[in-house]
Amino acid sequence: MDNLLLLIDFVVHVDRHLRGFVEAYGDWVYALLFLVIFVETGLVVMPFLPGDSLLFVVGALAGLGLMSYPLVLALLLAAAVAGNQTNYTIGRALGPKVFGWEQSRWFNKRAFEQAHAFYERYGGITIVAARFMPFLRTFAPFVAGVAQMTRRKFTFFDVTGGALWVGSLVSAGYLFGNIPWVAANLSKIIWAMILVPGALILVGAWRARRQAGVNTPA
To answer: Would you list the domain boundaries of the chain?
Structure first.
């Protein structure tokens, strides 16, 4: 329970924690950021890391001059693309046997099935759209690998989605993160960035499953 509360505090107050890290360790923050984004997008056991809010806060700190805006854009895009490529490679190596895995501490079967339902309905564009959806973005490249999407096609969607995700959120933080109203309501904005995409995932997965049921022969 204590670990869960610490994680929630980190996610909701990522601005305070990240700023404290910058002040204490300086340029080591770039290594930390690369690691967080790479792990969130590259390992299916870490879908709970604060990707969206982290990118927004990074942009806001860059707007204050605490980090280099061009450097974080390039670095986090590289981390996002490399993470997805790793995730895809793992999924491709494991193949369809993943469908037989049971829910466990290290494998969220429900999130995997939701990502698979999205992929079945929307195809490769799932890789782009999933970038903006917590949990789904961690499992989407894994599902693409399991489904044996070609590396060339996957890389196109991977780079496109990564550029849109990192570029839009870091730039939004850079431009708007230090406006007084935004800064005062940042925790509410972070919750919205978590809950709204999560609701969209549940609705989309429900519709995809319903459509799949309708199309299944009796």
So the answer is: 2-215
